[in-house]
Amino acid sequence: MASEIRDLDHLCIHTITTKPLEFEVACAKYAALGVKGISIWRDAVDGLDHHAVRECLRTNELTPASYVRGGFFPALQVEKRDAAIEDNIAMLQEAAAMEIPMLVLVCGAEPRQALQTSRDQIREGIEAILPEAKKLNVKLAIEPLHPMYADTRSAITSLAQANDMAEYFSDDYLGIALDVYHLWFDNDLERQIKRCGSNNNLFAFHICDWNVPTTDMLLDRGLMGEGCIPLKQIRGWVEKAGFRGFNEVEIFSNKFWEGDQDLFLDQIVNAYRQHS
Amino acid sequence: MASEIRDLDHLCIHTITTKPLEFEVACAKYAALGVKGISIWRDAVDGLDHHAVRECLRTNELTPASYVRGGFFPALQVEKRDAAIEDNIAMLQEAAAMEIPMLVLVCGAEPRQALQTSRDQIREGIEAILPEAKKLNVKLAIEPLHPMYADTRSAITSLAQANDMAEYFSDDYLGIALDVYHLWFDNDLERQIKRCGSNNNLFAFHICDWNVPTTDMLLDRGLMGEGCIPLKQIRGWVEKAGFRGFNEVEIFSNKFWEGDQDLFLDQIVNAYRQHS
Fold first, then answer.
1. CB-based contact, A117 to chain B, within 8 Å
2. Does A212 touch chain B (CB under 8 A)?
3. DSSP for B3-31?
4. Which chain A residue lies closest to B158 (C-alpha atoms)?
5. Where is B181: in which H helix or E strand?
6. Where are the alpha helices (DSSP H) in chain A?
7. Biggest alpha carbon distance in chain B?
8. Do B114 and A230 touch, CB atoms closer than 8 A?
9. What is the ipTM of this complex?
10. What is the average pLDDT across A240-265?
11. In terms of CA atoms, which chain B residue is nearest residue A210?
């Protein structure tokens, strides 16, 4: 089983989780609660000065975990694929400028072509940006998504496929972001996590819960402990595979976004201590 | 690739597809269009005399494919699991009385217990009803469901798992109903279909499409050709695996249910000819 959670040293929150908060406000609130890590969504820092972002992180003693989210490589037209590559390189430069060590890739899918074609284009996209990632010292993390997003968001729908892709490149700068929301049901999950860790590809671990019932395919993620994901069990597998990084809380939820964000942050910390 | 569709001899429609129609009306309309098969949902014949149902099928020259849907075996309490088994046996008796040769199993899941526990209870449930199925000459078809239904509807979320379960029993009366909606994204699908066919476990083939975007997790299935499922490719694999049964149209759709059912049936026949 997972190690006991005694402190918040491994707690990281994605800015999207508290979407209504301005970046500086979010940082201050996270820090006040003792949160140590932050994963930064591009929209949260859009228009902000990179130096100011770094200062804000330093002041609040927050360690940036990931920049979210690159990817979306597949497209019918080569011009669009090239544009996606350019945009990913821009994100790598932004991450480097803010001293964020990793870019999460939501790899993308194009419903008018075969999933395998989209996967080939994802591989080509990663190939194109990997040299820049190395040069800038920003790692890339493939995030396999739930199969319900296979139409437009990710042709990579399992940890097995993400492992295949990471092992194809076998590069210290390319690994995997494992989100329990996308993979909890997979009866091959324990074995694939072990495989991921033993190849040094386990770069990030995202947590939340699957609401029963789920009322929205995108924006109804649950707080840890509210749903049916065996979170402690999966965290145990992740730790057994050698992962020692952040437990990143990434919750998209209309319900929580509409509510009081201070209350929500308290709930996150409590849920993290009790149910993660 | 799939064989060319030259006629409607293999077209079957699930009564749920035209949910607003009374059973006798649905039968007459299907027959008028040249549809040859019908899969009957329990609610569609609730309260009807079994002899009258048989007569209605005979009059309209409709061949019953499946009775839908048994299963839902997992539960926390043994009393509930026993009740599910009793209900499945009742469905087998109803199917036999209406001369429907197969019962589709939506196997079930209980979100408060491990998926593996639910799968064990599914196995126990099948074990309990299989003797009755053989006695009544009604086959059982496990339907693996999309992982987005793993919380409450099915702990069996892939064709690989369904194959495992069917091969565990290795019984002429237990096989698999393959629905493209639940499995289209699986990069192991071709191989698992081949495996399913070579073990004589491919009992039924359900078709529809995945809408882009999908607006409801349950009731927004698309008409063939409207979405992103590579239907002809999958039918090709199914036929190559030896399947010669019905192509069963099973569409749950608030949009189509609210519309004119005659128009919808015309659309189904056209979509079947062009896009299946």
1. no
2. yes
3. PP--SSTTEEEEGGGGTTS-HHHHHHHHH
4. A186
5. helix B180-183
6. 23-33, 50-59, 78-97, 115-136, 159-169, 180-183, 189-198, 231-240, 254-258, 261-275
7. 51
8. yes
9. 0.96
10. 98
11. B151
